[in-house]
Amino acid sequence: MILQLIVTGISLGVVYGLIGMGMVLIFRAVGIVNFAQGDFLMLGAFICFAFNQKMGMPIWLSFAITAVLIGLSGIVFQFITYWPLRDAQDKTIIVSTLGASIALREMTKLIWGSTPQTIDPLRGGIVKIAGALLQWQYVIIIVFAALLMSMVYFLLEKTLLGNIMQATAQDKYAASLMGIPIIVAIGLTFFISMLITGAGGVMLAPIFFITNTMGVMAGVKAFAAVVIGGFGSVQGAIIGGLLIGLIEVFAGTYVSTTYKDTVVFAVLIISLLVRPQGIFGEKISEKA
Amino acid sequence: MQNTSNAKEAVLTLNKVCKNFGGVVAAKDISFDLYSGEVFGLIGPNGAGKTTLINLITGIYKVDGGTILLNGHDITKTPAHTRARRGITRTFQHPHLLNRCDIETNIYLGVDLAKKNKLLKSLDHKKLLDELLEVAGLKLNMRDGIDKLAYGQQKLLEVVRAILTRPSVLLLDEPAAGLNQKEMEHIVALVDIAIKMNSAVLLIEHRMDLVMSICDRITVLNFGNQIANGKPAEIQDNPVVIEAYLGRKRGA
Predict the structure, then answer these.
(1) Which residues in chain B touch residue A164, judged by CB atoms under 8 angstroms apart?
(2) DSSP string of A72-115?
(3) Cα(B202)–Cα(A94) distance, integer angstroms
(4) Residue in B82, B65, B88 with CA at minimum distance from that of residue B17
(5) Are B114 and A160 within 8 A, CB to CB?
(6) Residues B217-243 pLDDT 10s
(7) Nearest Cβ partner for B109 among A167, A173, A182
C-alpha cells in the first residue's frame, strides 16, 4: 500500500517537475514566468488524443510526434507572446502569456469540445514489484520523466548548445557579442521547455481525463513546485515537484480527496514563510 | 608608421559614421581605418561617444549614416552575432562574464563558437591559453565560479578570453580602469600578444600614460566629433585636445 502510494506520488511529482523545469528554463532565458505553461501540457494531451484516438496511430508514435509538435508550437508561442514585447516591462509579457493561456484553452474547446476524453496508456496492465501491484503507466512515467530530465540536464551542462543557452540566459548583450544569435538560443529554450511539458501531458492523460482545463491545476502545482524548490533552479523544480506529488497522493489517501489540493497549497504557504528562497534558491537581493 | 599603414589594406574602416540619440549627437561623421598589428587609441572626455562607437562597430547600435567595412566587406547592416563570428571581439568597462558558469566555460565559449571557422579548429587553443594566462598573471582553478575572482582578475580574464578567439579586431573598453599598476602591466603584455598575432586593437582608455605608451595612432573625440588625429606625440601637444580635456588653457 505504502509502496503504491509512493510510486503514484513520485510519478505525479516527476510530471510536475518536468513542467516546473520547463518554467525554469524559460524563466532563466527571458526572466518571465510563463503562465501558459500548463496549457501546453493540456495541448500535448489533446494532440496526442487526436493522433491516437481520432487517427488510430499507435500510442508511442503519437507520443513522439506530439512531443516534437508541442516543442515547435513553443517556438511559435515565443514569437507571438515574447519576441514582439521583449523590450517591454516584465509584467506586460506576463499578461501576454496569461492571454495566450486563455486563448489556448478556448481554442482547444472549439476544436475538441468540452467532453472529457481519454487516450491509451503507454503500457497497460499491472506489474508486480517487491510484492506491490503497480500500474505500468506509473512506472513508465517515472522512467520516462527521469530520462527526459537527464537529457535536458546533459544538454544544458555538457554541450555547446547548452552553454549557448546558458550564456543567453545570463547575459544576452555579452552573448550576442560572442557570436550567439539570441533569437535562436531563446527559440531553442522554448522548444525544449514545451517539448518536456507536452510529454508530461501525454503521460498524465491516461490517468486523468483530458479536458481543456486540465493544464490549469497542473500548471499551478508545477509553479508551486518551482517556488518550493527555489525559483530558477532546475534541481529545485525536480525536488519541489516530487514533494508536491507525494504530498498530494498521501493527503488524498490519509486526509481526504477533496482537500488534497488544500494540503498542497498549505505546504506551499508554509514553505514560503519558513524558507522564501526555496530549497535550492539563492538569496535574492533587491535589484538596484 | 603612416607609410606602412597605407601600404596594406585596412582591417576595419569607418566611413562617415553617424549616430544620434534624440537630439544628442553621439557620433558625427567619424572616419578612420584600423590596420592589423597596430594599437589605435580612442580618447576623449566622458560622454564624448567612445563607447557608442564601439557599440556601432559591434552592431549593438545601428548607424544613422555612414558605412563600416570589415576586411573590405560592408558590415553596416550585419547583425551583432555575425560580426562577432567574423572576428570583431570586445571587452567591457565592467566585465560581462557568465556568473553562473565556471571559469573554463567562460573562457572556452567564445572559442567554441568561433571553431565553426575551420582555420581556428586546427589551432592549439590550450597552448595559447596557457601563454595568455601566464602573461596575465592569472593562476586559476578552471572549475571555480567567476565570483571567486577579484575585479581586476575578472577584467584580465575577459581580455584573455577575447584574445583566445584570435580576433581580427579587438576592442578594449577601458581595460585598465580600476586596475592597479601591476595588473595594468599585465594588460599591456596581453595587448602585445594580440598585436603579435596581427589583431587590430582599438583601445579606449582614460589613463594617458597607458594610451601614450602603447598606441601607434590616436583619434580624439569630443561631443561625437573627431577633433584630432595623429601620433601620440602630436596629440599630446595639440591645443584643441588640451582644451577639450582641461577646458581653456590659461597662461603657461
Answers:
(1) 109, 113
(2) HHHHHHIIIIIGGGTTS-HHHHHHHHHHHHHHHHHHHHHHH-SS
(3) 41
(4) B65
(5) no
(6) 999 988 888 888 888 888 888 888 888
(7) A167
Residue ranges of domains in chain B, CATH in brackets: 2-246 (3.40.50.300)
Asked if residues B201 and B172 have their Cβ atoms less than 8 Å apart, the reply is: yes
Provide residues of B within 8 Å CB-CB of chain A.
58, 60, 79-82, 84-85, 89-90, 92, 96-101, 105, 109-110, 112-114
pTM: 0.83
Give which of A57, A48, A99, A62 is closest to A77, Cα–Cα: A99
Judge contact between B173 and B15, C-beta under 8 A.
no
> Each residue of B83-124: pLDDT tens digit?
988 889 999 888 888 888 889 888 888 777 766 555 666 677
CB atoms within 10 A of CB A42: 28
Helix orientation angle between A160-170 and B103-114, rounded to the nearest 10 degrees: 110
Across the interface, of A163, A171, A177, the residue whose CB is closest to B90 is A177
Q: What percent of chain B has pLDDT over 70?
A: 91
In this structure, what are the phi and psi dihedrals at residue B167, rounded to the nearest 5 degrees? -70, 150
Q: Are B12 and B57 in contact (CB under 8 A)?
A: yes
Query: Judging by DSSP bridges, how do beta strands B200-204 and B39-43 pair with one another?
Result: parallel
Are the CB atoms for A245 and A237 separated by under 8 Å? no
What integer is the mean pLDDT of A23-40? 91
List of chain A residues whose C-beta atoms are within 8 Å of the C-beta of residue B112: 160, 163
Q: Measured between alpha carbons, how far apart are the two ends of chain A, in Å?
A: 52
In this prediction, residue B122 carries a pLDDT of 64
A187 vs A74: CA distance, rounded Å: 8
Mutate to test the interface with B, among A159, A177, A182, A233 (most CBs of B within 10 A): A177
Judged by CB atoms closer than 8 Å, whether chains meet at A182 and B99 is answered as no
pLDDT digits (tens, 9 = 90+) for A50-92: 999 999 899 899 999 999 999 999 999 999 999 999 888 889 9
ipTM for the whole predicted complex goes beyond 0.85: no
Q: Which residues of A touch B89 (CB under 8 A)?
A: 177-178
Distance in angstroms (rounded) separating the CA atoms of residues B108 and B129: 10
Q: On the CB side of A122, how many CA atoms lie within 13 Å of its CA? A: 23
Selected for mutation to probe chain A from B100, B104, B106 (highest A CB count within 10 Å) is B100
